[in-house]
């Protein structure tokens, strides 16, 4: 059986030294983090040495789909950080979901975006890099002609891969397991996020809707944690990437520690 390793995204307190923070997370069982852009600040070579010394590694750098990002700059950042994946965390639909635009995306919007994503993916592929798209709930709940946006994106791209956030898929009322299986070799990464009943208002007070899930430590909410990890493991995923937008009663370290133990208990994470 392919056992995955634990990774994380976020969980970086603003006033703390990020490398000391990563060291604490490494001691809690984590071996990688997704925010490779951290290494670009200051001396990247020294930053990579610091990360390696504590038993961590970066997994991806960020691609901002909202701006006219220079692809050559993205490629440079990925190589400098020493990663093989470039992650796009939000597209047109997420802009509507989180208040970046006032109108929902149309079919033309999605098709233009799909074309743009595949062009970026093609440029990255020449450099042996992969572009992955991270979903939220909106790509499943917003439909065009009865088809969820995420399926339109998949049908109209060839080179872009997907980073499936299992929590957001579940919150949208869909099952992440068949969705992951349907992607086949276009599944690039998996985020493990969980939530419980009820919603909380967005701090900014806008968005469609202006609420967020009540996130909770993975393994304590409504996510089928074992099923998602079993599927991801069976599809050859190397990393189970924990994400939790907000913590309520636990510190970030406590949340990650509990999440790691819950994942390890399933038998699919080492």
Q: In brief, what are we looking at here?
A:
The chain has helices at 18-27, 44-53, 71-81, 92-97, 107-125, 138-141, 149-155, 166-171, 176-183, 225-234, 252-265; strands at 5-8, 30-35, 58-62, 85-88, 130-134, 143-144, 147-148, 161-165, 187-192, 194-201, 211-216, 239-242. The chain has 270 residues and is α/β, with parallel strands linked by helices.
Set out the fold topology.
Blueprint: E1 5-8, H1 18-27, E2 30-35, H2 44-53, E3 58-62, H3 71-81, E4 85-88, H4 92-97, H5 107-125, E5 130-134, H6 138-141, E6 143-144, E7 147-148, H7 149-155, E8 161-165, H8 166-171, H9 176-183, E9 187-192, E10 194-201, E11 211-216, H10 225-234, E12 239-242, H11 252-265
Parallel strand pairs: 1-2, 1-12, 2-3, 3-4, 4-5, 5-8, 8-9, 9-12
Antiparallel strand pairs: 6-7, 10-11
Number of separate structural domains: 1
Shape: globular
Mean pLDDT: 96
Percent helix, as a range, is: 25-40%
Class per helix and strand makeup: alpha/beta
Radius of gyration: 18 Å
What's the helix-strand series?
A: EHEHEHEHHEHEEHEHHEEEHEH
Annotation, overall tally of beta strands: 12
CATH fold annotation: TIM Barrel
Q: So, the CATH homologous superfamily?
A: Divalent-metal-dependent TIM barrel enzymes
What share of residues are in beta strands? 15-25%
- What is the straight-line distance between the termini? 11 Å
CATH architecture type: Alpha-Beta Barrel
What's the CATH first level? Answer: Alpha Beta
Order of strands across the biggest sheet?
A: 1-2-3-4-5-8-9-12
Oligomerization status of the protein chains: single chain
Major sheet: size, sense and barrel closure? 8 strands, parallel, barrel
- By DSSP (H or I, 4+ residues per run), the number of helices equals 11
Low-confidence stretches: none
């Amino acid at each position: 059986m392919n056992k995955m390793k634990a990774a994380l995204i976020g969980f970086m307190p603003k006033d703390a030294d990020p490398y000391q923070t990563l060291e604490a997370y490494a001691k809690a069982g984590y071996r990688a983090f997704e925010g490779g852009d951290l290494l670009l600040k200051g001396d990247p070579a020294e930053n990579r040495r610091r990360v390696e010394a504590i038993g961590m590694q970066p997994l991806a750098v960020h691609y901002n789909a909202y701006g006219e990002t220079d692809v050559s700059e993205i490629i440079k950042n990925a190589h400098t950080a020493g990663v093989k994946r470039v992650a796009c965390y939000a597209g047109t639909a997420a802009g509507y979901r989180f208040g970046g635009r006032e109108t929902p995306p149309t079919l033309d919007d999605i098709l233009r975006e799909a074309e743009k994503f595949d062009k970026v993916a093609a440029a990255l592929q020449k450099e042996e890099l992969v572009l992955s798209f991270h979903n939220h709930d909106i790509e499943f709940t917003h439909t065009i002609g009865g088809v969820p946006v995420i399926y339109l994106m998949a049908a109209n791209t060839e080179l872009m891969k997907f980073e499936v956030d299992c929590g957001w898929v579940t919150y949208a009322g869909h099952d992440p397991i068949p969705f992951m299986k349907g992607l086949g070799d276009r599944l690039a990464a998996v985020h493990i996020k969980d939530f419980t009943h009820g919603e909380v208002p967005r701090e900014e007070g806008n968005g469609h809707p202006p609420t967020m899930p009540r996130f909770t430590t993975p393994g304590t909410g409504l996510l089928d944690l074992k099923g998602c990890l079993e599927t991801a493991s069976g599809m050859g995923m190397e990393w189970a990437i924990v994400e939790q937008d907000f913590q309520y009663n636990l510190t970030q370290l406590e949340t990650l520690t509990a999440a790691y133990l819950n994942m390890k208990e399933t038998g699919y994470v080492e």
